[in-house]
Amino acid sequence: MSAEQPEAPSSGVRIMHGRRGHPTALVMGEDGIETCLHSLYDPIREAGSFVAGPVDAAVLVFLGTGLGYHLPRSLANNPHVNRVILVERHPELAELAAARLCQGWNGRIEVVTPSTPGGGFPPVPEALDAAALYVVPHPPSLRAHPAWYDHYRILLATVGRTGPAADRTQAAGRPLTILVPFEAYYVQRECIHGLESLGHRVVVLDCRGREGDEASLFGEALRGERPDLVLSINMRGLDRRGVAAQMLRRLGIPLALWFVDSPEFILYGEALPPADGCHVFLWEKSYLPAVAAQGYRVSHLPLAADVRLAGAARVEERFSAGLSFVGNSLASGFLARLAVKFPVTAQVMAFAGEAVERIIAARGDQLQLVDQLVAEGGRFLPDDDARLFFRAYLLHSATSAYRTRLLGQLLPLGLTFFGDPDGWRKVFGSAIDARPDVNYFRETPAVYASSAVNVNATSLQMPHTVNQRVFDVPLCGGFLLTDRQGALGELFAENEVALYDGISDVAETARCYLEREGLRREIAERARRRVLGEHTYGHRMRKMIAEVLGAAARPA
Hints:
single chain; Glycosyltransferase; YkvP/CgeB_Glyco_trans-like
C-alpha cells in the first residue's frame, strides 16, 4: 500500500504505510490537527529514541503506545519485568501495541484506554505504587493529546503516595531534603550552597538540555525521593503545562517559587501552579500586590551573597582598576528581539523614545509610570501579548539608556569595563578600557577586590530592591558605589554604603571616594560584616524554609 492510500479510518486513527513499507499511525489531536505518531521513513529506527533502558522498577507503564515499536525493546532491556500497563488514548492503538508485545513475551499486560472514543479517563489498575513503577513516555502521543496524558502523568507519579510527605510541625527545625531543579541558571547554585550550609540535603534535578522533559524528570525523581520542599527560581525546571506542580500538590510537597526577575514576563504562557501548594517569594516588593491578587501566599525576599565567592576574592594585577564596572552593554540584540513582538512603526518608536525619558526621570515610581505608558500606547498595540512585550521593551530600553548615560559620565575618570568589550566599544568607541568577560564564580570576586571603586547601576525593573552586586562586592572585600534604592536603608546602616543620587551626581561622588582610600576601607569593612551577619544565601534560605513550612504546618 502506498503512503498516499491509508487504510480505512476509525475513530480518529488512520493507519498508513511509510516509504519503507512499515505501518505508521496518524491521529486527530486535541487541537484538531492530525499528528503522525511515527516516522514516515523509518519508524523502527526512530523507536530507538523512545526505548527504556534498564530500570529498577517492577512495573513498566507505557504512556502512549503508538503502534508499539518501542515496547519489545524496552522489555528486552528489563527481563525482570513481568507486568506492563499500556495507557493509550486510542483503543485501536492499544490493541495493536498489545498484540505486538504478545509476540515473544508472556508477562501480564493491562490496558488503560477509553472504552469509546472520547470516553474520559478510565482508572489505572488498583494497588499500584508510584515507587515501584517506571513510566515510559511516547512523546508523539503526548504531543497529540497533552491534556489527556497530563492526567495520567500526575496520577502515575503519585499513585499510592498521596497525602502529606511528612509532619510539618517540626520541619523548619530539622535537616530537610530539598529538591532544586537545576539549569545552571542565575542564583540556583547560590541557593544550593545556602541550603547546604544549613545542613540540609539538596537533591539536584538536572534539567540542563532537557527543555520539554521537565514533567518526566519530576516524575522519575519523585519515584525515588519524597522531598520536604521543592525550590524553583523563576519557574525554571517546571513544565509549562503545570504537571510537575500538580504532582507536588497531590503528594503534599510544598513548592517555593523565588522570582528574581519580573514575574509578569516569566509567567507569560505558563500554567500557574496551584495556589494552595505554592509560596511565592519576590526579590522586589513592587510586584507583591499583583502576585497576591492571584491567590498566592507571597513574601519579600531580597537577593544575597554566596559566601563561597570570598575564596576567589584575591587582589590580582590583571584585574587592577581605579574605577570599574562589571556587566553587559545591553547592545547585544536583546532589545531587537523584544521589538519583533509588537508593531514597530515610526509612531510607536517615537512614543517609546519619549517614554524612556519619562521612565528615567521617574526612578522609584517607574513601574506605575510604565503601566500608564502602556495604557497610553494601547492604540498602537493590538493585543495583550504586544502590550506585555512593549512593557518589557520600555523598561529594558530605559535601563540601557540610564546605564549608558551614567557610565558615560565616568569615562573621564578612567572607567574600566569588565565584560562585553565589543558591545561597550560599540557604545563608547574603541579608546575605552574594555576587558574580556569574567567568570562570575572564579574571576568576578577578584575584580571586586582589585578595584578601588566598583560602580553599580540598578536595573529599572527594580524600583525598590537592590541587585546581587550590592552584597557580593563587600563580601569580597571591595568598595561599592551604588545608586540610591529604597531597600538600602532596610539592609544596611548609613555608614555601610556609598551612594550617588543620579546621573548628574555620579562623577563627582566617584571622584570623592577615589581620593579617600581610608574612608573606602572603613565603609567596605562595615558592609562586609553586615553581609556576613545578615545577607548570605544561608540567611535567605533559612527564612524561606521557615515561612513555607511554617505556613504548611498551620491549619487552613
